Amino acid sequence: MDEFWVFGYGSLMWNPGFSHVETAQAHLYGYRRALCIWSWVHRGTESDPGLVLGLSRGGSCKGVAFRVDPSEWGSVIAYLRERELVTNVYEEKVVALSLADGRRVKGVTYVADPTHWQYAGSMRPAEAAKIVHRAKGKSGPNDAYLFNTLTQLRGMGIRDHLLEEVAREVERLRA
């Protein structure tokens, strides 16, 4: 790769944790954002897992692309692998991204492995909301993860109807 880009679609959008020299809204085709990963480290525990986002095959996904300075490539990929590949529920992929300004770039992202035992698959929003509402992990409450992601998406003018429906159900459970 001539340039090193990272595509974020969940917590990487609002908490990348690495230095970068450029940020751009990006569109990824062939994958969609989904609450499809059981989390028992960051947003849940093994006895009470939470749900976090993964990319599932099909559809498309808008998110954030971060361009990393060449001098930082090694440290950033090491950081991402430590963060995203803790249990290997994600597969590291180099994907084609369309940036908002029309550029097409290659970027690294993390796609859900549907054969992994932590893959939750798809579930109804009400079912997902019950899990998100109660779960907590070492990075905090699962619902904070959901609402932080939605805040980021809304700030970028992106609607994610499924996440919004789960959030409405979480709010209903809080009431």
Question: What does this 3D model show about the protein?
Answer:
- The chain has about 180 residues and is α+β, with helices and mostly antiparallel strands.
- It has a single domain (about 5-175), classed as Hypothetical upf0131 protein ytfp.
- The chain contains 5 helices and 7 strands.
- The strands form 2 sheets. The protein has a 5-stranded mixed beta barrel. It has a two-stranded antiparallel ribbon with strand order 6-7.
- A hairpin with a 4-residue loop joins β4 (about 90-100) and β5.
- α3 (about 125-135) crosses α5 and α4 packs across α5 (about 160-175).
- It is globular, with a radius of gyration of 16 Å.
Task: Tell me the layout of helices and strands.
Elements: E1 4-8, H1 11-14, E2 22-39, E3 50-68, H2 73-84, E4 90-99, E5 104-112, H3 125-134, E6 136-137, E7 140-141, H4 142-155, H5 161-174
Parallel strand pairs: 1-5
Antiparallel strand pairs: 1-3, 2-3, 2-4, 4-5, 6-7
Helix pairs in contact: 3-5, 4-5
- How far is the first residue's CA from the last residue's CA? 49 Å
What is the alpha-carbon Rg in Å?
Answer: 16 Å
| Second rung of CATH, namely the architecture | Roll
Report the CATH superfamily. Gamma-glutamyl cyclotransferase-like
Total helical segments? 5
Structural class: alpha+beta
Q: How large a portion of the residues is in β-strands, by DSSP E?
A: 35-45%
Nearest-integer average pLDDT: 96
Shape: globular
Secondary-structure element series:
EHEEHEEHEEHH
**pLDDT below 50 for ≥5 consecutive residues: which ranges?**
none
CATH class: Alpha Beta
**Oligomeric form of this entry?**
single chain
How are the strands of the biggest sheet laid out side by side?
Answer: 1-3-2-4-5
Total count of domains: 1
Q: What composes the largest sheet?
A: 5 strands, mixed, barrel
Overall number of strands:
7
